[in-house]
Each structure stands twice: as C-alpha cells, then as structure tokens.
Amino acid sequence: MPRVAPTPLQLAEPEREQLQQVIKRHSTPQQIAIRASIIVLERLVDAPRPRGPSSFSLEQIVQLFAIACEPPPTCGRPISHWTSRELADEMMKQGIVESISPRYVGRLMNEADLKPHQSQYWLNPPQLSI
C-alpha cells in the first residue's frame, strides 16, 4: 500500500481559537482534547538552534585524533583500546586541554567517523619501503 504524504495544515486564527476552547473545556472527552492539542501544537515547531562557537582550537582537536590513532600502551595506558573517557583523561594529562567531557570527545570522534576501538588508524600513512 503506497504511503501518502501528509498535507500541510493551514489553520485560520478563529479555528485555532476554537481548538483552544475545546482543549480548555472540562467536559471535552480526553481523546478529542488530545487530538486538538496535537493539531494546535503541530504549528509550534522550534527553530533549529545554532551551536555556539567551539571552545577548542583545531590544533587541540587534531591532537585528540592523533592520540586516538595511537595504541594506548604508547601513552602508558594499560588498556587494549581507547574509550571516550580514557581519551578525555589522556588529553587533560598531557595538558592539551584543561577540561573536556567524555561525551564531547565521543561526539568529535563520531563527527570524524573515527572508531579507534574497532581498527587501527594513522594520521600519516606509513612509509612503504620499495
């Protein structure tokens, strides 16, 4: 069965006021009040919020990616793979940043599509000897 795209709902001001009255009335059945509120709320959509300026420089982010591309034992970590929390701790330990949340580290890694726990990466490809 093919899906039909919903048509945009255009409400005039008197219709919207009438729906508001239906919602506020105590004698209105709950199911109808919920439907009316959905119709009214569909018009109220939040505008997309812009992100604030980044508090970290591009150099700091590149250093994060460089650490993530190295095996953890090279940094003295007794772990088999990097986690967001371990990367955040290592960045603060090395003095790259004063503080950074593991959640933000994870978001940066997702945006860069880096998954150091799944495979090995390198920033500069290894030199092939011919």
Describe this structure in words.
The structure is a single chain. The protein has helices at 13-24, 30-42, 58-69, 84-93, 102-111. With 130 residues, the chain is mostly helical. Among the domains are: 13-42, no CATH class; 58-111. Helix 1 (13-24) packs antiparallel against helix 2 (30-42), helix 3 crosses helix 4 (84-93) and helix 4 (84-93) crosses helix 5. The chain is elongated, with a radius of gyration of 26 Å. The termini are far apart.
Note poorly predicted spans: none
**DSSP E strands, number:** 0
Largest sheet entry:
none
Q: Taking Cα atoms only, what radius of gyration do you get, to the nearest Å?
A: 26 Å
Structural class: mainly alpha
In N-to-C order, the SSE pattern is: HHHHH
Amount of helix: 40-55%
Note the beta-strand portion. under 5%
How many individual helices?
5
Terminal CA distance reads: 60 Å
Shape, principal axes of CA atoms: elongated
Mean pLDDT: 84
Helices, strands, pairings?
Layout: H1 13-24, H2 30-42, H3 58-69, H4 84-93, H5 102-111
Question: Brief overview, please?
Answer:
The chain has 130 residues and is an all-alpha fold. Helix content is 44%, strand content 0%. Helix 1 runs antiparallel to helix 2 and helix 3 packs across helix 4.
Keywords for this structure?
mainly alpha, 44% helix, 130 residues
